[in-house]
């Protein structure tokens, strides 16, 4: 490996790859608390008995914003809608795609769909209304 | 437990000075603080310094000793980083050290150089206070995170952008007499509503500016102040700190800040006061909505009602509970690492009667400073009281 090769973020990049294949998961501890990887200890109860569980195919938007002033990594993506989505045991933050940003609102049902940044080509958590 | 005396305070002007290094900014603030305190530099036993983004803006780590040197102090020095709550956290550590008797005199404060990064660079730097993997890579910016909270608040309790606009108008009004403020300029509600959107529902005038600046406090034990006949009528009588999950989406309620509630409750109990005893407060209004969340977390407004406090005049300079008489982060400016200690400086001056806005709180005895980091995954609250 040379110094210029990108280095993966173990746990996170596998999750993105799985989600891109339609196999998204979350982590569930022995006491039923949900969390996101990489994770060795449940942040709710300290349990170290953690296993992957299937993430629900759809979730509901809990809150949303349309960002006009992005960081440089999303320069060409703005304006874009960012939402916090409730998938039951866990919530995810992602970009709402496939809809006019002005029409995105709390309560909307969305499905997880990994997309790419128009600026950097990096994978981004996308959320498509169903 | 003995109180901690605020013997001296120093602030630089907050604003746009991209060429000035943070060591220069901090040095200026400490000169003022030492002059005001009458405490010799030789008596300082520790330097506690808050800074957030020095690695990004100045390519500078290991800032503790650098800042002690800039202040002309030979004492062990530590940098505290807790995002926008960095120097609030440093103040809390100073208070604890002085109370335990470990130290009698501490120089505490903070600085931040931000404007040299430009708007895009500063936006990127501020965003590192959020979870890089699960928030920033999804496009969350700092205004974006507070916009998510603002929308969640509107959905849960009602309210509209115009309510928030009144907070910005109030804080700009308060800053008119503050010569250190970044904006000494009155604005109107229509200015806020017509400003370009940053992250909806928040626009340019809902956001604090990007600022350079520094703050410094000379804190002493009660015994040191008495032995040296210091003119230090204001004491820090309560301190509290709260924590929460890092990412906003892991907050149980997206429009509340339990870390600040925890910090506030601890600080009130520590000082032996309750919210009803508070005469005024400086709160962390990095965005207009943040002032609402702070008031509710500190029990200065009931949950769901803080949104109308400015619009209805309860928190204006002549209201029953003046909030951010300094101008707040919104108008005074927000050099991140300097902010927490700067709030203590402003509250001290207001209580001591030395502040241009002291007349609004002439009979006040008890005030609060609330400093928040990230989307309030970190918070510190301090109670200050004045001898009357």
From TrEMBL, chain A:
SUPFAM superfamilies: Nucleic acid-binding proteins. Residues 54-113 form the ChsH2 C-terminal OB-fold domain. It comes from the Archaea. PANTHER family: BLR3430 PROTEIN. InterPro entries: ChsH2_C, NA-bd_OB-fold, Thioester_dehydratase-like. This is ChsH2 C-terminal OB-fold domain-containing protein. It holds the Pfam family OB_ChsH2_C.
Automatic annotation (TrEMBL), chain B:
Keywords: Acyltransferase, Isoprene biosynthesis, Transferase. SUPFAM superfamilies: Thiolase-like. GO terms for molecular function: acyltransferase activity, transferring groups other than amino-acyl groups. The keyword Transferase applies. One of its GO terms (biological process) is isoprenoid biosynthetic process. Residues 240-385 form the Thiolase C-terminal domain. The keyword Disulfide bond does not apply. Pfam families: Thiolase_C_1, Thiolase_N. Residues 7-222 form the Thiolase N-terminal domain. This is Propanoyl-CoA C-acyltransferase. It comes from Natrinema pallidum DSM 3751. The lineage of its organism: Archaea, Methanobacteriati, Methanobacteriota, Stenosarchaea group, Halobacteria.
């Amino acid at each position: 490996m040379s110094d210029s090769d990108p280095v993966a973020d173990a746990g996170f990049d596998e999750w993105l790859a799985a989600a891109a294949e339609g196999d998204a998961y979350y982590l569930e501890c022995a006491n039923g608390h949900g969390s996101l990887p990489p994770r060795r200890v449940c942040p709710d109860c300290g349990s170290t008995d953690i296993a992957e569980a299937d993430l629900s195919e759809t979730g509901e938007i809990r809150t949303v914003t349309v960002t006009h002033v992005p960081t440089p990594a999303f320069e060409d993506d703005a304006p874009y809608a960012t939402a916090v989505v409730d998938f039951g045991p866990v919530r995810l933050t992602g970009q709402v795609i496939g809809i006019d940003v002005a029409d995105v609102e709390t309560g909307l049902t969305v499905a997880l769909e990994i997309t790419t940044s128009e600026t950097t080509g990096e994978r981004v958590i996308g959320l498509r209304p169903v | 437990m003995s109180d901690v005396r605020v013997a001296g305070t120093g602030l630089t002007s907050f604003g746009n000075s991209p060429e000035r290094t943070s060591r220069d900014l901090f040095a200026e603030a400490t000169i003022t603080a030492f002059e005001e305190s009458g405490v010799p530099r030789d008596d300082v036993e520790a330097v506690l310094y808050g800074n957030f983004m020095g690695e990004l803006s100045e390519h500078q780590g290991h800032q503790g000793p650098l800042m002690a040197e800039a202040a002309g102090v030979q004492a062990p020095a530590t940098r505290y980083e807790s995002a926008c709550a960095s120097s609030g956290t440093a103040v809390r550590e100073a208070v604890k050290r002085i109370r335990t008797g470990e130290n009698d005199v501490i120089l505490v404060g903070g600085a931040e150089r931000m404007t040299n990064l430009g708007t895009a660079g500063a936006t990127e730097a501020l965003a590192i206070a959020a979870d890089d993997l699960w928030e920033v890579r999804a496009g969350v910016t700092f205004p974006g995170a507070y916009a998510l909270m603002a929308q969640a608040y509107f959905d849960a309790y009602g309210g509209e952008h115009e309510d928030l606009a009144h907070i910005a108008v109030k804080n700009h009004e308060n800053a008119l007499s503050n010569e250190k403020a970044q904006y000494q300029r009155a604005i109107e509600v229509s200015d806020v509503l017509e400003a370009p959107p940053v992250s909806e529902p928040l626009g340019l005038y809902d956001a604090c500016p990007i600022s350079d600046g520094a703050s410094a406090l000379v804190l002493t034990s009660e015994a040191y102040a008495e032995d040296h006949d210091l003119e230090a009528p204001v004491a820090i009588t309560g301190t509290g700190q709260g924590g929460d999950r890092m990412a906003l989406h892991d907050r149980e309620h997206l429009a509340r800040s339990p870390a600040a509630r925890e910090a506030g409750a601890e600080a009130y109990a520590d000082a032996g006061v309750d919210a009803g005893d508070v005469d005024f407060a400086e709160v962390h209004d990095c965005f207009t909505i943040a002032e609402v969340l702070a008031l509710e977390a500190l029990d200065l407004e009931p949950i769901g009602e803080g949104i109308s406090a400015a619009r209805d005049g309860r928190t204006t300079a002549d209201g029953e509970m003046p909030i951010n008489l300094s101008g707040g982060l919104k108008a005074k400016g927000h050099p991140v690492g300097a902010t927490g200690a700067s709030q203590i400086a402003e509250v001290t001056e207001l209580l001591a009667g030395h502040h241009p806005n002291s007349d609004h709180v002439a009979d006040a005895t008890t005030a609060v400073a609330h400093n928040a980091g990230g989307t309030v995954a970190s918070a510190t609250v301090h109670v200050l009281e004045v001898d009357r």
